[in-house]
C-alpha cells in the first residue's frame, strides 16, 4: 500500500504566521491527494481534493499544491481556529491511505 | 444537506462481532459510494472499506478476511460488521460519503473491546 509521510509531526506557530505542511508519498499518486483538518472530538473536515482544489467554504488563506509524490498544504496567516491536526489522504491506489498527521499548535 | 449518523453497541467482547449502522439523512443513498473509516485512540485514520449503492464493495486487504459492508436502500442505511475483534479494533468508527475524497463524515462512534 502507499505510505504517506507527513512532516513535521508537530508544528509550533504563532497566530498570524505562515505554516507549511508536507506530505510525501511512497510512490506517485498523481494529483489524487486530499487534505483534511481535524479538531479534538470532531470528525475530519475536507480542505482540498485533487491536491489543490479548495473544498466548499474553505478560506483562501489555505492553499494546496504538488503532484506525484510531494505535496504541500500552506496556511498563509494562522487564525486561532486553524490550530488542529491535518491529514493528507491518497485516493489513487486502493487501499486509500492517510498520513499520520501534522499537529499545528500555538507557539 | 446530507448528514450521516453512526449507531451500534459501544462495547464489544473480544472475539465477538462489531456491528455498526450508518443512517443517511437529507439525501439518497442511491448515488455515490459510502465508506467506513476508523481511528484508534490518539492515532491516525484507517480506511476499512466502501460500498456502492448497488452493493459492490471494496475492503482494505488488512481487514478483508473479517469485514462485511452491506447496504439497505429501503432504509437509506449502510452497515459494517467486523468479526473476531481484539483490542486492536478499539477505535472511533466513522461512516462517510465517498472516499475520493470524503466530503461528508458522520460524527463518529467509539467502540471499546473488553470482556
Brief account:
The complex is a heterodimer of chains A (107) and B (115). With 107 residues, chain A is mostly beta strands.
Give keywords.
heterodimer; A: 107 residues; mainly beta; seven-stranded mixed sheet; four-stranded antiparallel sheet; 11 strands; B: 115 residues; 0% helix; globular
How does this structure look, described?
The complex is a heterodimer of chains A (107) and B (115). Chain A is an all-beta fold and 107 residues long. Chain A is built from no helices and 11 strands. Chain A has strands at 4-7, 10-13, 19-25, 33-38, 45-49, 53-54, 62-67, 70-75, 85-90, 97-98, 102-106. The termini of chain A are far apart. With 115 residues, chain B is mainly β. Helix content of chain B is 0%, strand content 53%. Chain B is built from no helices and 11 strands. In chain B, the strands form 2 sheets. In chain B, strands 2, 4, 5, 6, 9, 10 and 11 form a 7-stranded mixed β-sheet that branches. Chain B is globular and about 40 Å long. The model of chain B has no long low-confidence stretch (mean pLDDT 95). Classes of the chains: A mainly beta (107), B mainly beta (115). The interface between A and B is medium-sized, with 22 and 18 residues.
Write the layout of secondary structure elements.
The complex is a heterodimer of chains A (107) and B (115).
Chain A: E1 4-7, E2 10-13, E3 19-25, E4 33-38, E5 45-49, E6 53-54, E7 62-67, E8 70-75, E9 85-90, E10 97-98, E11 102-106
Parallel strand pairs in A: 2-11
Antiparallel strand pairs in A: 1-3, 3-8, 4-5, 4-9, 5-6, 7-8, 9-10, 9-11
Chain B: E1 3-7, E2 11-12, E3 18-25, E4 33-39, E5 46-52, E6 57-59, E7 67-72, E8 77-82, E9 91-98, E10 102-105, E11 109-113
Parallel strand pairs in B: 2-11
Antiparallel strand pairs in B: 1-3, 3-8, 4-5, 4-9, 5-6, 7-8, 9-10, 9-11
